[in-house]
Amino acid sequence: MLGGISIWQLLIVLGIIILIFGTKKLRNVGSDLGGAVKGFKQAVNEEEKDGKPQAKVSHEEQPNTYDVRAEEKKAADSVEEREERK
Fold it and tell me: What are the strands, taking DSSP E only, across 22-71?
């Protein structure tokens, strides 16, 4: 069957899970998971109906980074220029 797992082994595992967590907690987990899947499907369908993405990422802005190596090179070049002037 499923890679050598029989139906009896699945039933035993299911029984152990029910004993550990209880039916109420498993029911809550199932309903939460179902609600999440339903919400995901609705979001996907809304996006398909609109035909446009909900969020747009722009790569036009320059990142705010600091290049230490370039700064060190600039400092070293200015030191060399001062020594050449002397």
Answer: none
Domain range summary for the chain, segments of one domain joined by +: 23-53
Whole-angstrom Cα distance, residue 21 to residue 74?
A: 64
Cα dihedral 24/27/33/39 (nearest 10): -110
| Alpha carbon distance 54, 46 (integer Å) | 10
Q: Please name every residue paired with 80 in a beta bridge, in sequence order, or none if there are none.
A: none
Residue 5 phi/psi, 5-degree rounding, is: -95, 125
Query: CA 27 to CA 13: how far, in whole Å?
Result: 17
Residue 53 pLDDT > 70: no
- What tokens appear for 8 in the block? 């009896």
pLDDT digits (tens, 9 = 90+) for 1-51: 457 888 999 999 999 998 998 888 888 988 999 999 999 998 888 776 776
**Which DSSP state fits 85?**
H
